[in-house]
Amino acid sequence: MSLSALEKSILNKSAKIAIVGLGYVGLPVAALLAEKGFQVLGVEIKANRVDLINQGISPIEGKEPGLAEMIKRVVGSGKLRATTDFKEISDRDMVLVNVETPVNDKNYPEYQALRASVSSVGKNIKKGALVVIESTIMPGTMKKIVLPLLQETSGMQVRKDFYLGNCPERVMPGKLLSNLANLSRVVGGDTSETAAVMKKFYAYIVDADIDETDWITAELVKTAENAYRDVNIAFANEVAKICETLGADVWRVRELVRKSPGREMLMPGSGVGGHCIPKDPWLLVSSVRDTDLDLELIPTARKINTSMPAHLMALLKEQAGEISEKKILLLGYAYLEESDDIRNSPAAALAKLLEEAGVQVVIHDPFVPEFTGDIYQAAKDCDAALIITGHSAYAEMDFTKFKECLRSPLVIDGRNLLDRGKMRAAGINLITLGDRSTAE
Ligand code: SAJ
User: Fold this and answer.
1) 232 in a domain, yes or no?
2) Which residue's C-alpha comes closest to atom 36 of ligand 1?
3) Which of 32, 326, 332, 363 is the S-S candidate for 205 at Cβ 3.0 to 4.6 Å?
4) Same domain, yes or no: 270 and 179
5) Are the CB atoms for 138 and 283 separated by under 8 Å?
6) Is 276 a catalytic residue?
7) Same domain, 279 and 211
8) Residue 273 Cα, ligand 1 centroid: separation in angstroms?
9) What's the pLDDT tens digit per position in 308-357?
10) 0.85 exceeded by pTM
11) Half-sphere exposure in the Cβ direction for 398 (13 Å, CA)
Protein backbone atom coordinates (compact mmCIF):
# COMPACT_ATOMS: atom_id res chain seq x y z
CA MET A 1 0.00 0.00 0.00
CA SER A 2 1.39 3.43 -0.85
CA LEU A 3 1.52 6.16 1.78
CA SER A 4 -1.36 7.98 0.09
CA ALA A 5 -3.43 4.78 0.04
CA LEU A 6 -2.61 4.29 3.72
CA GLU A 7 -3.68 7.85 4.40
CA LYS A 8 -7.01 7.20 2.66
CA SER A 9 -7.57 4.05 4.73
CA ILE A 10 -6.87 6.07 7.87
CA LEU A 11 -9.28 8.80 6.87
CA ASN A 12 -12.08 6.31 6.12
CA LYS A 13 -11.09 4.18 9.13
CA SER A 14 -10.72 1.07 7.03
CA ALA A 15 -7.06 0.86 8.12
CA LYS A 16 -6.51 -2.20 10.26
CA ILE A 17 -4.48 -1.54 13.40
CA ALA A 18 -2.26 -3.73 15.56
CA ILE A 19 -0.99 -2.69 18.98
CA VAL A 20 2.01 -4.69 20.20
CA GLY A 21 2.12 -4.74 24.01
CA LEU A 22 -1.13 -4.34 25.97
CA GLY A 23 0.24 -2.76 29.12
CA TYR A 24 -0.41 0.62 30.77
CA VAL A 25 0.10 2.35 27.43
CA GLY A 26 -0.83 -0.15 24.73
CA LEU A 27 -4.17 -1.21 26.16
CA PRO A 28 -5.66 2.28 26.55
CA VAL A 29 -4.41 3.16 23.05
CA ALA A 30 -6.01 -0.01 21.64
CA ALA A 31 -9.30 0.69 23.42
CA LEU A 32 -9.40 4.33 22.31
CA LEU A 33 -8.71 3.46 18.65
CA ALA A 34 -11.35 0.73 18.74
CA GLU A 35 -13.78 3.18 20.33
CA LYS A 36 -13.14 5.52 17.39
CA GLY A 37 -14.22 2.73 15.03
CA PHE A 38 -10.94 1.14 13.92
CA GLN A 39 -10.56 -2.63 13.80
CA VAL A 40 -7.84 -3.19 16.41
CA LEU A 41 -5.79 -6.30 17.15
CA GLY A 42 -3.82 -6.32 20.36
CA VAL A 43 -0.72 -8.55 20.37
CA GLU A 44 0.44 -9.46 23.87
CA ILE A 45 2.89 -12.16 25.01
CA LYS A 46 1.14 -12.71 28.36
CA ALA A 47 -1.64 -15.20 27.59
CA ASN A 48 -3.51 -14.44 30.82
CA ARG A 49 -3.78 -10.76 29.86
CA VAL A 50 -5.03 -11.79 26.40
CA ASP A 51 -7.70 -14.01 27.97
CA LEU A 52 -8.88 -11.28 30.36
CA ILE A 53 -9.06 -8.67 27.58
CA ASN A 54 -10.96 -11.03 25.25
CA GLN A 55 -13.50 -11.44 28.05
CA GLY A 56 -13.84 -7.64 28.04
CA ILE A 57 -12.02 -7.36 31.38
CA SER A 58 -9.27 -4.80 32.00
CA PRO A 59 -6.17 -6.35 33.60
CA ILE A 60 -5.10 -2.89 34.83
CA GLU A 61 -5.82 -2.36 38.55
CA GLY A 62 -5.91 1.03 40.22
CA LYS A 63 -8.29 3.90 39.45
CA GLU A 64 -8.41 4.34 35.66
CA PRO A 65 -11.62 6.31 34.99
CA GLY A 66 -13.53 4.93 32.03
CA LEU A 67 -11.01 2.34 30.92
CA ALA A 68 -12.66 -0.86 32.14
CA GLU A 69 -16.00 0.19 30.67
CA MET A 70 -14.39 1.12 27.35
CA ILE A 71 -12.62 -2.23 27.08
CA LYS A 72 -15.85 -4.08 27.81
CA ARG A 73 -17.62 -2.02 25.14
CA VAL A 74 -15.09 -2.38 22.32
CA VAL A 75 -14.42 -6.06 22.95
CA GLY A 76 -18.16 -6.64 23.05
CA SER A 77 -18.59 -4.86 19.72
CA GLY A 78 -15.79 -6.91 18.19
CA LYS A 79 -13.66 -3.82 17.47
CA LEU A 80 -10.88 -4.97 19.79
CA ARG A 81 -9.44 -8.46 19.99
CA ALA A 82 -6.26 -9.68 21.65
CA THR A 83 -3.91 -12.46 20.62
CA THR A 84 -0.52 -13.89 21.47
CA ASP A 85 0.15 -14.72 17.82
CA PHE A 86 2.32 -12.21 15.96
CA LYS A 87 1.41 -13.86 12.64
CA GLU A 88 -1.97 -12.18 12.91
CA ILE A 89 -0.43 -8.77 12.16
CA SER A 90 0.15 -9.81 8.54
CA ASP A 91 -3.04 -8.02 7.43
CA ARG A 92 -2.44 -4.90 9.52
CA ASP A 93 -1.92 -1.51 7.89
CA MET A 94 -0.52 0.08 11.06
CA VAL A 95 1.46 -1.50 13.87
CA LEU A 96 2.07 0.49 17.08
CA VAL A 97 4.74 -0.91 19.43
CA ASN A 98 4.35 -0.28 23.16
CA VAL A 99 6.77 -2.50 25.02
CA GLU A 100 8.89 -1.78 28.07
CA THR A 101 12.33 -0.22 27.64
CA PRO A 102 13.95 -0.53 31.08
CA VAL A 103 17.53 0.38 31.86
CA ASN A 104 19.91 -2.23 33.29
CA ASP A 105 22.04 -1.96 36.44
CA LYS A 106 24.52 0.11 34.45
CA ASN A 107 21.73 2.54 33.58
CA TYR A 108 21.95 1.57 29.92
CA PRO A 109 18.83 0.65 27.91
CA GLU A 110 17.91 -3.03 28.08
CA TYR A 111 16.17 -3.58 24.73
CA GLN A 112 15.31 -7.26 24.98
CA ALA A 113 11.56 -6.62 24.72
CA LEU A 114 11.97 -3.96 22.03
CA ARG A 115 14.26 -6.12 19.90
CA ALA A 116 12.01 -9.17 20.26
CA SER A 117 8.85 -7.30 19.34
CA VAL A 118 10.43 -5.34 16.48
CA SER A 119 11.82 -8.60 15.08
CA SER A 120 8.43 -10.29 15.32
CA VAL A 121 6.83 -7.27 13.66
CA GLY A 122 9.43 -7.37 10.88
CA LYS A 123 8.80 -11.05 10.24
CA ASN A 124 5.06 -10.56 9.86
CA ILE A 125 4.24 -7.08 8.57
CA LYS A 126 2.72 -6.68 5.14
CA LYS A 127 4.14 -4.47 2.42
CA GLY A 128 3.08 -0.87 2.81
CA ALA A 129 2.51 -1.04 6.56
CA LEU A 130 3.33 1.89 8.86
CA VAL A 131 5.18 0.85 12.03
CA VAL A 132 5.18 3.33 14.92
CA ILE A 133 7.36 2.90 18.01
CA GLU A 134 5.53 4.46 20.96
CA SER A 135 7.88 3.14 23.63
CA THR A 136 10.27 5.65 25.16
CA ILE A 137 13.69 5.03 23.64
CA MET A 138 17.23 6.38 23.86
CA PRO A 139 17.75 9.08 21.23
CA GLY A 140 19.32 7.41 18.21
CA THR A 141 17.50 4.09 18.72
CA MET A 142 15.19 4.47 15.71
CA LYS A 143 18.10 4.94 13.32
CA LYS A 144 20.61 2.57 14.89
CA ILE A 145 18.47 -0.28 16.19
CA VAL A 146 14.83 -0.25 15.09
CA LEU A 147 15.38 0.52 11.40
CA PRO A 148 18.14 -2.05 10.73
CA LEU A 149 16.25 -4.73 12.70
CA LEU A 150 12.99 -4.12 10.83
CA GLN A 151 14.68 -4.13 7.42
CA GLU A 152 16.68 -7.24 8.25
CA THR A 153 13.74 -9.27 9.58
CA SER A 154 11.26 -8.11 6.93
CA GLY A 155 13.63 -8.18 3.98
CA MET A 156 12.00 -4.89 3.02
CA GLN A 157 13.29 -1.33 2.72
CA VAL A 158 11.91 1.60 4.67
CA ARG A 159 10.11 4.23 2.54
CA LYS A 160 10.00 1.80 -0.36
CA ASP A 161 8.20 -1.13 1.25
CA PHE A 162 7.12 0.10 4.69
CA TYR A 163 7.03 3.32 6.70
CA LEU A 164 8.47 3.92 10.15
CA GLY A 165 7.66 6.48 12.85
CA ASN A 166 8.29 7.30 16.48
CA CYS A 167 5.47 8.72 18.61
CA PRO A 168 6.36 8.75 22.33
CA GLU A 169 3.43 8.47 24.75
CA ARG A 170 2.72 10.76 27.69
CA VAL A 171 0.46 8.67 29.86
CA MET A 172 0.38 8.54 33.64
CA PRO A 173 -1.21 5.86 35.78
CA GLY A 174 -4.55 7.12 37.05
CA LYS A 175 -4.97 9.36 34.02
CA LEU A 176 -4.28 6.91 31.19
CA LEU A 177 -7.25 7.76 29.00
CA SER A 178 -7.37 11.49 29.77
CA ASN A 179 -3.62 11.97 29.19
CA LEU A 180 -3.85 10.12 25.85
CA ALA A 181 -6.67 12.39 24.73
CA ASN A 182 -5.54 15.71 26.21
CA LEU A 183 -1.76 15.81 26.04
CA SER A 184 0.03 16.88 22.87
CA ARG A 185 2.02 14.32 20.92
CA VAL A 186 5.17 14.46 18.81
CA VAL A 187 5.15 12.40 15.61
CA GLY A 188 8.60 11.65 14.19
CA GLY A 189 8.50 10.19 10.68
CA ASP A 190 11.10 8.59 8.42
CA THR A 191 10.03 11.36 6.05
CA SER A 192 7.91 14.46 6.52
CA GLU A 193 5.20 12.74 4.45
CA THR A 194 5.10 9.86 6.93
CA ALA A 195 4.94 12.33 9.83
CA ALA A 196 1.99 14.05 8.12
CA VAL A 197 0.11 10.74 7.81
CA MET A 198 0.90 9.92 11.45
CA LYS A 199 -0.58 13.27 12.43
CA LYS A 200 -3.84 12.43 10.65
CA PHE A 201 -3.95 9.07 12.42
CA TYR A 202 -3.31 10.40 15.93
CA ALA A 203 -5.85 13.17 15.41
CA TYR A 204 -8.53 10.53 16.04
CA ILE A 205 -7.48 10.08 19.66
CA VAL A 206 -5.52 13.25 20.50
CA ASP A 207 -7.41 16.51 21.08
CA ALA A 208 -4.19 18.49 21.59
CA ASP A 209 -1.29 19.58 19.37
CA ILE A 210 0.29 16.90 17.20
CA ASP A 211 3.73 18.16 16.23
CA GLU A 212 5.44 16.72 13.17
CA THR A 213 9.18 16.15 13.26
CA ASP A 214 11.89 13.57 12.68
CA TRP A 215 12.94 10.51 14.71
CA ILE A 216 15.80 12.04 16.72
CA THR A 217 13.77 15.08 17.73
CA ALA A 218 10.86 12.90 18.89
CA GLU A 219 13.24 10.69 20.88
CA LEU A 220 14.91 13.73 22.46
CA VAL A 221 11.65 15.49 23.37
CA LYS A 222 10.36 12.53 25.35
CA THR A 223 13.55 11.76 27.26
CA ALA A 224 14.37 15.44 27.86
CA GLU A 225 10.90 16.25 29.24
CA ASN A 226 11.23 13.54 31.85
CA ALA A 227 14.85 14.39 32.64
CA TYR A 228 13.58 17.94 33.16
CA ARG A 229 11.06 16.68 35.73
CA ASP A 230 13.66 14.51 37.49
CA VAL A 231 16.13 17.41 37.77
CA ASN A 232 13.41 19.64 39.20
CA ILE A 233 12.33 17.05 41.73
CA ALA A 234 16.00 16.67 42.72
CA PHE A 235 16.20 20.42 43.22
CA ALA A 236 13.21 20.28 45.59
CA ASN A 237 14.75 17.37 47.46
CA GLU A 238 18.07 19.18 47.89
CA VAL A 239 16.30 22.33 49.17
CA ALA A 240 14.41 20.09 51.61
CA LYS A 241 17.72 18.83 53.00
CA ILE A 242 18.97 22.42 53.31
CA CYS A 243 15.79 23.39 55.19
CA GLU A 244 16.18 20.48 57.59
CA THR A 245 19.76 21.51 58.26
CA LEU A 246 18.82 25.15 58.82
CA GLY A 247 15.69 24.40 60.86
CA ALA A 248 13.26 25.77 58.27
CA ASP A 249 10.09 24.43 56.64
CA VAL A 250 10.65 23.55 52.98
CA TRP A 251 6.90 23.46 52.37
CA ARG A 252 6.52 27.09 53.42
CA VAL A 253 9.66 27.98 51.44
CA ARG A 254 8.24 26.22 48.38
CA GLU A 255 4.88 27.95 48.74
CA LEU A 256 6.57 31.36 48.71
CA VAL A 257 9.12 30.51 46.00
CA ARG A 258 6.22 29.55 43.74
CA LYS A 259 4.86 33.09 44.11
CA SER A 260 7.85 34.29 42.14
CA PRO A 261 7.03 34.09 38.41
CA GLY A 262 8.45 31.05 36.64
CA ARG A 263 9.48 29.30 39.83
CA GLU A 264 7.24 26.21 39.75
CA MET A 265 9.25 24.47 42.46
CA LEU A 266 8.24 20.83 42.62
CA MET A 267 7.75 18.75 45.76
CA PRO A 268 10.37 17.02 47.90
CA GLY A 269 9.43 13.44 48.62
CA SER A 270 10.35 9.97 49.79
CA GLY A 271 11.67 9.14 46.35
CA VAL A 272 11.00 9.08 42.62
CA GLY A 273 9.35 5.95 41.31
CA GLY A 274 7.39 4.88 38.27
CA HIS A 275 8.23 3.62 34.85
CA CYS A 276 9.21 6.96 33.34
CA ILE A 277 11.06 9.42 35.53
CA PRO A 278 13.69 7.10 37.03
CA LYS A 279 14.51 5.65 33.62
CA ASP A 280 14.13 8.30 30.93
CA PRO A 281 16.99 10.52 32.15
CA TRP A 282 19.30 7.54 31.75
CA LEU A 283 18.00 6.94 28.22
CA LEU A 284 18.91 10.55 27.43
CA VAL A 285 22.34 10.28 29.11
CA SER A 286 23.01 6.97 27.34
CA SER A 287 22.55 8.61 23.95
CA VAL A 288 25.91 10.37 24.32
CA ARG A 289 27.64 7.66 26.38
CA ASP A 290 30.02 6.72 23.59
CA THR A 291 31.06 10.31 22.93
CA ASP A 292 33.47 12.57 24.78
CA LEU A 293 30.59 14.63 26.15
CA ASP A 294 30.63 14.38 29.98
CA LEU A 295 27.23 14.98 31.60
CA GLU A 296 26.92 16.06 35.26
CA LEU A 297 23.52 17.57 36.12
CA ILE A 298 21.22 14.81 34.91
CA PRO A 299 23.17 11.92 36.51
CA THR A 300 23.54 13.92 39.74
CA ALA A 301 19.79 14.56 39.87
CA ARG A 302 19.25 10.81 39.61
CA LYS A 303 21.68 10.32 42.52
CA ILE A 304 19.84 12.87 44.69
CA ASN A 305 16.41 11.37 44.01
CA THR A 306 17.65 7.83 44.56
CA SER A 307 19.04 8.97 47.93
CA MET A 308 15.63 9.92 49.35
CA PRO A 309 14.65 6.52 50.82
CA ALA A 310 17.96 6.50 52.73
CA HIS A 311 17.26 10.07 53.82
CA LEU A 312 13.95 8.98 55.33
CA MET A 313 15.78 6.19 57.13
CA ALA A 314 18.19 8.79 58.56
CA LEU A 315 15.23 10.86 59.80
CA LEU A 316 13.85 7.73 61.46
CA LYS A 317 17.17 6.95 63.14
CA GLU A 318 17.44 10.53 64.37
CA GLN A 319 14.12 10.12 66.18
CA ALA A 320 14.11 6.46 67.13
CA GLY A 321 17.80 5.89 67.82
CA GLU A 322 18.93 2.29 67.28
CA ILE A 323 16.43 0.74 64.86
CA SER A 324 17.66 -2.82 64.50
CA GLU A 325 15.11 -5.23 66.07
CA LYS A 326 12.46 -2.49 65.71
CA LYS A 327 9.20 -2.98 63.81
CA ILE A 328 8.56 -0.24 61.23
CA LEU A 329 5.42 0.32 59.15
CA LEU A 330 5.74 1.66 55.61
CA LEU A 331 2.50 3.31 54.46
CA GLY A 332 2.38 3.17 50.66
CA TYR A 333 4.14 0.82 48.26
CA ALA A 334 2.83 2.14 44.93
CA TYR A 335 5.10 4.83 43.47
CA LEU A 336 2.20 7.28 43.10
CA GLU A 337 -0.85 8.16 45.16
CA GLU A 338 -4.14 6.38 44.30
CA SER A 339 -2.29 3.96 42.01
CA ASP A 340 -1.37 0.27 42.20
CA ASP A 341 1.75 0.76 40.05
CA ILE A 342 4.75 -0.40 42.07
CA ARG A 343 7.46 0.01 39.46
CA ASN A 344 10.64 1.51 40.94
CA SER A 345 8.74 1.96 44.20
CA PRO A 346 10.69 4.08 46.73
CA ALA A 347 9.11 1.90 49.43
CA ALA A 348 10.80 -1.17 47.97
CA ALA A 349 14.18 0.58 48.16
CA LEU A 350 13.53 1.71 51.73
CA ALA A 351 12.28 -1.71 52.85
CA LYS A 352 15.53 -3.23 51.59
CA LEU A 353 17.64 -0.70 53.48
CA LEU A 354 15.65 -1.23 56.69
CA GLU A 355 15.78 -5.01 56.49
CA GLU A 356 19.54 -4.82 55.94
CA ALA A 357 19.64 -2.80 59.19
CA GLY A 358 17.83 -5.57 61.04
CA VAL A 359 14.42 -3.92 61.05
CA GLN A 360 11.18 -5.88 60.83
CA VAL A 361 9.34 -4.09 57.99
CA VAL A 362 5.54 -4.07 57.70
CA ILE A 363 4.10 -2.71 54.45
CA HIS A 364 0.58 -1.45 53.81
CA ASP A 365 -0.93 -0.13 50.58
CA PRO A 366 -4.68 0.14 49.84
CA PHE A 367 -4.12 -0.43 46.11
CA VAL A 368 -1.42 -3.08 45.98
CA PRO A 369 -3.09 -6.49 46.41
CA GLU A 370 -0.36 -8.06 48.54
CA PHE A 371 -0.32 -5.11 50.97
CA THR A 372 -4.00 -4.23 51.40
CA GLY A 373 -5.80 -4.83 54.70
CA ASP A 374 -6.67 -2.92 57.84
CA ILE A 375 -4.29 0.00 58.40
CA TYR A 376 -4.72 -0.15 62.19
CA GLN A 377 -3.98 -3.86 62.23
CA ALA A 378 -0.85 -3.22 60.17
CA ALA A 379 0.23 -0.53 62.68
CA LYS A 380 -0.08 -2.89 65.65
CA ASP A 381 3.03 -2.77 67.83
CA CYS A 382 5.04 -0.83 65.25
CA ASP A 383 7.73 1.46 66.61
CA ALA A 384 7.13 4.04 63.89
CA ALA A 385 5.18 4.58 60.67
CA LEU A 386 6.63 6.15 57.51
CA ILE A 387 4.43 7.74 54.85
CA ILE A 388 6.03 6.78 51.53
CA THR A 389 3.09 7.29 49.18
CA GLY A 390 0.52 10.02 49.50
CA HIS A 391 -2.57 7.80 49.32
CA SER A 392 -5.55 9.84 50.56
CA ALA A 393 -6.62 6.93 52.82
CA TYR A 394 -3.68 7.80 55.09
CA ALA A 395 -4.75 11.41 55.47
CA GLU A 396 -8.25 10.22 56.40
CA MET A 397 -7.18 7.88 59.20
CA ASP A 398 -8.47 8.10 62.77
CA PHE A 399 -5.14 9.32 64.13
CA THR A 400 -6.09 8.70 67.78
CA LYS A 401 -6.93 5.09 66.99
CA PHE A 402 -3.79 4.84 64.83
CA LYS A 403 -1.65 6.12 67.72
CA GLU A 404 -3.13 3.54 70.08
CA CYS A 405 -2.04 0.77 67.69
CA LEU A 406 1.56 1.98 67.46
CA ARG A 407 4.07 0.88 70.09
CA SER A 408 5.51 4.42 69.96
CA PRO A 409 3.70 7.41 68.41
CA LEU A 410 6.31 8.35 65.79
CA VAL A 411 5.33 9.15 62.19
CA ILE A 412 7.79 10.26 59.48
CA ASP A 413 5.85 11.88 56.64
CA GLY A 414 7.72 11.60 53.33
CA ARG A 415 4.95 13.25 51.31
CA ASN A 416 3.80 16.19 53.45
CA LEU A 417 0.47 14.41 53.51
CA LEU A 418 -0.55 14.62 57.17
CA ASP A 419 -2.11 17.55 58.94
CA ARG A 420 0.34 18.71 61.59
CA GLY A 421 -2.40 19.98 63.94
CA LYS A 422 -4.41 16.76 63.80
CA MET A 423 -1.34 14.66 64.45
CA ARG A 424 -0.30 16.81 67.39
CA ALA A 425 -3.85 16.64 68.77
CA ALA A 426 -3.64 12.87 68.56
CA GLY A 427 -0.37 12.94 70.48
CA ILE A 428 1.70 11.73 67.54
CA ASN A 429 5.30 12.91 67.10
CA LEU A 430 5.17 13.92 63.42
CA ILE A 431 8.35 14.49 61.46
CA THR A 432 7.66 15.88 57.99
CA LEU A 433 10.39 15.56 55.36
CA GLY A 434 12.02 18.95 54.87
CA ASP A 435 10.30 20.59 57.82
CA ARG A 436 12.39 20.86 60.94
CA SER A 437 9.69 22.92 62.66
CA THR A 438 7.54 19.81 63.20
CA ALA A 439 10.29 18.05 65.17
CA GLU A 440 9.33 17.84 68.85
N1 SAJ B 1 7.45 13.08 42.57
C2 SAJ B 1 8.09 13.82 43.56
N3 SAJ B 1 7.95 15.18 43.57
C4 SAJ B 1 7.21 15.82 42.61
C5 SAJ B 1 6.59 15.05 41.60
C6 SAJ B 1 6.72 13.69 41.60
O7 SAJ B 1 8.75 13.27 44.43
O8 SAJ B 1 7.09 17.04 42.68
C9 SAJ B 1 7.61 11.63 42.55
C10 SAJ B 1 6.29 10.89 42.62
O11 SAJ B 1 5.95 10.62 43.95
C12 SAJ B 1 6.60 9.61 41.87
C13 SAJ B 1 7.62 10.06 40.83
O14 SAJ B 1 8.17 11.28 41.30
O15 SAJ B 1 7.18 8.65 42.71
C16 SAJ B 1 7.04 10.28 39.45
O17 SAJ B 1 5.92 11.09 39.61
P18 SAJ B 1 5.22 11.80 38.33
O19 SAJ B 1 4.19 12.74 38.86
O20 SAJ B 1 6.24 12.35 37.43
O21 SAJ B 1 4.39 10.62 37.70
P22 SAJ B 1 4.80 9.66 36.51
O23 SAJ B 1 6.00 8.87 36.78
O24 SAJ B 1 3.58 8.89 36.14
O25 SAJ B 1 5.16 10.71 35.39
C26 SAJ B 1 4.41 10.74 34.25
C27 SAJ B 1 5.34 11.27 33.23
N28 SAJ B 1 4.64 11.12 31.99
C29 SAJ B 1 5.23 10.37 31.01
O30 SAJ B 1 6.36 9.97 31.07
C31 SAJ B 1 4.41 10.11 29.84
C32 SAJ B 1 5.69 12.72 33.50
O33 SAJ B 1 6.35 13.24 32.35
C34 SAJ B 1 4.47 13.56 33.74
O35 SAJ B 1 4.89 14.86 34.14
C36 SAJ B 1 3.63 12.95 34.83
O37 SAJ B 1 3.28 11.62 34.42
C38 SAJ B 1 2.36 13.76 34.97
O39 SAJ B 1 2.31 14.57 35.91
O40 SAJ B 1 1.48 13.58 34.12
Assistant:
1) no
2) 172
3) 32
4) no
5) yes
6) yes
7) no
8) 8
9) 999 999 999 999 999 999 999 999 999 999 888 899 999 999 999 999 99
10) yes
11) 7
